[in-house]
Amino acid sequence: MAQVIAVLFLTFFLFEFLVELVLNELNISHVRCHRSVQGATRLLHDRIGPEQVDQSVAYSLAKNRFQRWAAIYGAVATLVVLFGGVLPFLDTLSRTVGKSFPSGQEATGILFCLGTGLVVSVLNLPVDLYSIFVIERRFGFNRTTPGLFISDKLKALFLGVLFGGPFLFAVLWLMRATGPAWWIWAFFFIFAFQLFMLLAYPALIAPLFNRFTPLETGEISERIASLAERAGLKTGGIFTMDGSKRSAHSNAYFTGVGRTKRIVLFDTLLKQLNTEQLLAVLAHEMGHYKMKHIRRTLLVRGVFLLAGLFVLSRLVDYQPLYLAFGLAEPSRHGALVLFAFMAGPLTFYLTPFFNHLSRKHEYEADGFAARLLNNGKALGEALVELTVQNLSNLTPHPWYSAYHYSHPTTDERIRAMGLEKP
After folding, report:
1. Which of helix, strand or coil describes residue 253?
2. Of the candidates 415, 197, 417, which has an alpha carbon nearest to the alpha carbon of residue 294?
3. Separation in Å, CA 262 to CA 173, 204, 208, 288, 351
4. N or C terminus: which one in the chain shows less Cβ crowding within 10 Å?
5. Could you tell me the pTM of the whole model?
6. Mind telling me the catalytic residues?
7. Which of 206, 201, 174 is nearest to 190 (CA)?
8. Which domains does the chain have, with CATH numbers?
């Protein structure tokens, strides 16, 4: 039976890999054949010239060509971890070291899970390095120094241990101590932990990576405050973030909940957009909060989390599952890691569903912004400006877009707001 499980996993894994590969090649071909903005909305057509189109095409093709090889490398790396003896080695090592801790079972599980995560992170380093220091630098976006890159990785490792250790301890303890219904208790804990991280991120985590400065008092801050008041949105402040120290890409977002909720503007965004465009982008972000998109997304993901934990509870003691990947016996920590590896190939077909939901939310937030400002033109202009500045793919293949894009294209959003007149 273990061999059957291994073959089934490899079948799903290979199918996901082939789907990704085919979609990537389709996108490459589609972008090559659509090297113009003919047929684009007037806002985009009037703003972008032939040279900028060529840059956008070159950037999109460079990323997709690299993704071709990154996908192959990632698939090989995953198979090495799962079938190359890495998991049995980490399991044996974790059991040996875990015995020296008071809570031996939980300690073993924490070491195994964090150790597997560390191995995966190290294997992903070549992809990260090439993407940041070759592709992003080639097109003028990268501003990350090697020192900053190393610092970011060390901070991420520290946070992984700081938060991941207690989190894993609680989950593993619940799996052991609460009987057959452990998956229900684990669900409530994990869901509560996610809410806690929403609170902790703005105040505790984000400042470790970036400097957040209250926006100076002036016309922009006053108009943003006035806009938030009109939207009925209370915030914990308006901040600028030094995103330019890592990348020339720009963004704006809301983060946190309750008293930790704040508006964050990348310093690059302040340089790229005028005041009206900036207000339109923020009105869009306010729309996400006012229309409860974050709550809806959490609810949907909560349903899938509960279903996943239920399935895991049925498999946690099924020995052939572990033998298929070289593990000698069932274990709670082994179940968690194997489930994490298997979740992608077994559920990748749900990705378009989540993207469809996200796109729906984007359209709704665009509509909210247009109503709040009594005109959607400023948002359309802002979207076009960001598309040009970030060299976004102007003509993604529809299938590739449906699978990979959580946001509609700029043209789709402009048309949805009714800005394209006949």
Report:
1. strand
2. 197
3. 35, 13, 17, 13, 29
4. C
5. 0.89
6. 285, 366
7. 174
8. 179-272 (3.30.2010.10)
